[in-house]
Every structure is written in structure tokens, then in C-alpha cells.
């Protein structure tokens, strides 16, 4: 007879909060049990062979006044990133068209701003309209927004706003000093109020403890409603940033985090985000098994690399997986 495994406490209703200790209890399950539970939850809401594919473009690079310890684009650190002003509309549209033609379903545009100025919001609003006209979903990440800025982006037809909580409230101050956790929560509330879908997650592997990881997941899962899209980034230790020398994380701990995100946010799309370039194929397969069902597709993230397209295509083929919303031969499904 198999040994009876502990059953971590679950919230009594969908509105009851996930306590950090409940999430730690999930992390502590034997690996096979945790992944099995996550895969079971995953199958209740998603086809486990489907993956959502987004491409990312840095539309404004470097020179950011914030001091996020992981980021190559902060002007406070010297990671040797060449700063670039806001890209012209035509270049953004050309990049989006190329991403679409390679199979990306969503185009995510990132700008290294603390918060955008009025003319910058106007310019990004035009980009959103033009990318939507290509038949793609849009996502932007521009830093902090007030209520009016969020509405302006919503009016332009924006589908998702990415704004990460990144870590637990207690650990936040060790990573970033130029803004508060509450600033992040305020922007998320402004976005939520407009009806734009929320993309919010964090970074794992910054030297944090398991309780800190559980604290991040608890914050995300207790947002009401929780985000539609949850990026789980693996720290990319970038030379010149304060986190460059962070000791490596046990890879199973990253997979456990994906599983715990899947269990606590059953209907969210969980995104295997930064860090895939340093993961082997088996590790990525484990992440998909644990409930990740989205990834960045394209050879560049913002300032760092991502796996080659041919490699990703071959990986999906070998795993019998395909882009969400496409038939097995790759043609777009008809409504
Ligand atoms: N400036 C905006 C902001 O911070 O909200 C948007 C761009 S910022 C680069 C988007 C996210 O990328 C961060 O919140 C963080 O989660 C992730 N990120 C940045 N640098 C990273 C790194 N070195 N490794 C992993 N994730 C990283
Ligand atoms: C997110 O959570 N991850 C993406 C996206 N949102 C904007 C960014 C990853 C950045 C990785 C480091 C870089 O390329 O500079
Ligand atoms: Fe600026 Fe965003 Fe990088 Fe922080 S993560 S330094 S806010 S670009």
C-alpha cells in the first residue's frame, strides 16, 4: 500500500485566502505528488498539449531610474546595455509582423520606464492599435500607471498589462529600494479596474528562501481575481547587476514553484518566462508537466537571449505539444 501523503490545507472557498503556510506545505510535498496534483489541476482547465506563445520586444531600452537588483536596464547599475529611445511605430509593427509570421500569438512590448509620460502613453497606444490590426493580442509593460493612463491603454484596445510583484513583500526591499510593494499593487488595481487583463508574476532564484517564494505565490493567488497570466521568471544573473553572483537555485525548486502556481491559480496561464536559455530540454518538459502552458517565443527577451526558434519548434514536436489554438498541422483553427 502506498503511504498516505499529507493533504495541505486548502482554502474553503475560492474567496478564502491562500496562507503562506498552506503554500509552504504544497512545496514540501514529495516531488512526484506535487507534480501529479499540479498536472491534475491543469487538465481540469487546459489541454496539456497546448502552449501559448508570446514574443517580446524592448521598445525602449536602458536608462531606467529604478534600482531593481536583477535588471540590466537600471541606470544605477552598469551592465553594459546600450540605451535606446522609444522605437518608431513602423519598426515595432515590422517586428510584430515577423513574430506573427513565425507563430507568435501575442506581442509583448516592454519599456524601461519608472512610469510613462503623457506623450509616451500616446505613442504606445498607437503601437497597440497597429499591432492589434495585425491580428495579434497585445501586452505592454511600461512601469507604474495611474488610473487615467491605464484607461488610455484600455481605450487603445490593450489586452494585457504586465506588472510583476517579483517577490514577497518582506523580501522586496532587499531587491528594490526606489518603489514600494504598495506602488505595484496600486498599478495592478488601476489596470484591473479598466478590464485590461493582468499579467503578474515574479522572479525565482534571487537568493530568496522557500518561505519568500511561498509569500510571492500567496500574494498573487490572493489578488481578487488572481491574474489571468502569471509569468514565473528564473533569475538571469546579469554581470554588472547586484544579483550577478547569486548562488544557483536547485532546478527542482523552480519546477515546484510552477506546480504551486498552477495549483493555487488553476485557470491562470502560467508562463515559463525568463531563463529558458539556461534550462535543458528535460527541465522545460518538467515545467510543462508541472502546469506551465506559455513561453516566450523568439530569440531575444528584452536585453538577454532566448532559445533559437528551431530548437523550440523541435522541442514542442518531440513533446507532442503545439501552439494553443492551432491544429496539429500548425494551421490556425477556424472559429
Ligand atoms: N520597467 C517595467 C517594470 O519593471 O515593471 C517593465 C520591464 S521589467 C524588465 C519586466 C520584468 O522582467 C521584471 O518585473 C522582472 O520580473 C523581469 N526581469 C527583469 N530582469 C530579469 C532578470 N535578469 N532575470 C529574470 N527576470 C527579469
Ligand atoms: C516578464 O515577467 N518577463 C519578461 C516580460 N515580463 C517583460 C521580461 C524578462 C526579461 C529578462 C531579462 C532581459 O532580457 O533583460
Ligand atoms: Fe526599470 Fe523595470 Fe528594470 Fe526595474 S525592472 S530597473 S523598473 S526596467
UniProtKB/TrEMBL annotation:
UniProt cofactor note: Binds 1 [2Fe-2S] cluster. The cluster is coordinated with 3 cysteines and 1 arginine. Binds 1 [4Fe-4S] cluster. The cluster is coordinated with 3 cysteines and an exchangeable S-adenosyl-L-methionine.
Stored Pfam families: BATS, Radical_SAM
Listed InterPro entries: Aldolase_TIM, BATS_dom, Biotin_synth/BioAB, Biotin_synthase, Elp3/MiaA/NifB-like_rSAM, rSAM, rSAM_sf
Keyword tRNA processing included in the entry's annotation: no
Catalytically driven reaction(s): (4R,5S)-dethiobiotin + (sulfur carrier)-SH + 2 reduced [2Fe-2S]-[ferredoxin] + 2 S-adenosyl-L-methionine = (sulfur carrier)-H + biotin + 2 5'-deoxyadenosine + 2 L-methionine + 2 oxidized [2Fe-2S]-[ferredoxin]
Listed SMART domains: BATS, Elp3
Keyword list, A-Z: 2Fe-2S, 4Fe-4S, Biotin biosynthesis, Iron, Iron-sulfur, Metal-binding, S-adenosyl-L-methionine, Transferase
Binding residues annotated for [2Fe-2S] cluster, in chain numbering: 108, 139, 199, 271
Summary of subunit composition and partner proteins: Homodimer.
Name the UniProt record assigns to this protein: Biotin synthase
Organism placement in taxonomy: Bacteria, Pseudomonadati, Pseudomonadota, Betaproteobacteria, Burkholderiales
Protein's gene: bioB
